[in-house]
Amino acid sequence: MKKAEQAVRNIFSLADININGERIFDIQINRPEFYERFLADGVIGFGETYMEGWWDCEALDVMIDKVLRADLEHAASPYKMIIPFLLSKVINHQRRSRAFKIGEFHYDLGNDLYQKMLDKRMTYTCGYWKNAHDLESAQEAKLDLVCRKMGLQPGMRVLDIGCGWGSFAAFAAERYKVQVLGVTVSKEQIELGQQMCKGLDVELRLQDYRDVSGQFDRIVSLGMFEHVGRKNYVTYMRQVRRLLVDNGLFLLHTIGTNTPKTSVDPWTDKYIFPGGMLPTIKQIASASEGVFVTEDLHNFGTDYDLTLMAWMANVDAHKTALKQAGYDDHFYRMWRFFLLGAAGGFRSHRNHLWQIVYSKRGIDNGYQSVR
Predict the structure, then answer these.
(1) HEC string of the chain?
(2) How many angstroms separate the CA atoms of 277 and 280, rounded?
(3) What is the pLDDT of residues 262-295, one digit of tens each?
(4) 255 has which bridge partners?
(5) 106-133, pLDDT tens digit by residue?
(6) Which end of the chain is more exposed for a tag (fewer CB within 10 A), N or C?
(7) β pairing state of 351-359 and 216-222
(8) Are residues 36 and 57 in contact, defined by beta-carbon separation less than 8 angstroms?
């Protein structure tokens, strides 16, 4: 047995994963070149060789869960990973001039993809599965949870930072009779979102959060903070404070992680979310210190595991139609690695989903937590 193969076998054995084993989470090697590529390129090579069909795994989500629980990504981190790490220390990848890059790269992939993957409202954030039985009910429960946490009342003016296709904006306007302004950096989302919100008191704009002006009774941000970047956290919090009325509330819904990082992993940065960065609780708290009063913190990250598995099931159910629409096998393998890898990240408790409610000066008689 070659040294590279033995080294890879030894690494994965630390997580009780066998090479060419018989269990659903074992890795099946299709090309022996995988071993040296994996050792040379680490995390990014692992993802790229899956995309290229060099290896397979029936239960990719289970395997990634085991990999993360065993901390294997640090057992195969080549020195070349140090360069992007150092660059992220000095470069602001989320600066204003790059604000629309993530929209063009990820969210503008094609509305046909997201229409088949997501629920009917096209909610591209974690569902709330407490009393839900499927993706549709989980997403509606999440949207209603946000509205109830915000104490929405008819006539309120609400800002949705990172509005996507307007799922929250439409739900809040329809169910709670509020006026909503949503901003996003995706042209595709704006185009379809405006159609989906037609007839409602909703305005969707192609606009960076730093360019929004006005005053709002409530502000929400669902799944956008992951694109803000550590160097901009304070700017973000201060901008939200400027836009919020004195007795208003702000709800931040974001993926977070346990360990401070300067960026997402190299594979995700290259293929899925360029410039993405997952915050820690400490980083969020530091940015909001002296800006907001923290009223409530809710962690339901395990619900994202269920949400991602439901999205993957939808992609599989429409695999033929998506292929006919131009999403080839290479894209399918990339997307499968993304969705199931992310599910493993939440299942292993490496990543979390936080909803944090803020006020400017505190709530008289206290804020009543909503679950």
Answers:
(1) CCHHHHHHHHHHHCCCCCECCCCCCCEEECCCCHHHHHHHHHHHHHHHHHHCCCEECCCHHHHHHHHHHCCHHHHCCCHHHHHHHHHHHHCCCCCHHHCCHHHHHHHCCCHHHHHHHCCCCCCCCCCCCCCCCCHHHHHHHHHHHHHHHHCCCCCCEEEEECCCCCHHHHHHHHHHCCEEEEEECCHHHHHHHHHHCCCCCEEEEECCHHHCCCCEEEEEEECCHHHCCHHHHHHHHHHHHHHEEEEEEEEEEEEEECCCCCCCCHHHHHHCCCCCCCCCHHHHHHHHCCCCEEEEEEECCHHHHHHHHHHHHHHHHCHHHHHHCCCCHHHHHHHHHHHHHHHHHHHCCCEEEEEEEEECCCCCCCCCCCC
(2) 10
(3) 667 889 999 998 989 999 999 999 999 999 999 9
(4) 353
(5) 777 889 999 999 999 999 999 999 999 9
(6) N
(7) unpaired
(8) no
- Identity (one letter) of the amino acid at 188? E
Place of tokens 């981190």: 77
C-beta of residue 329 within 8 angstroms of C-beta of residue 323? yes
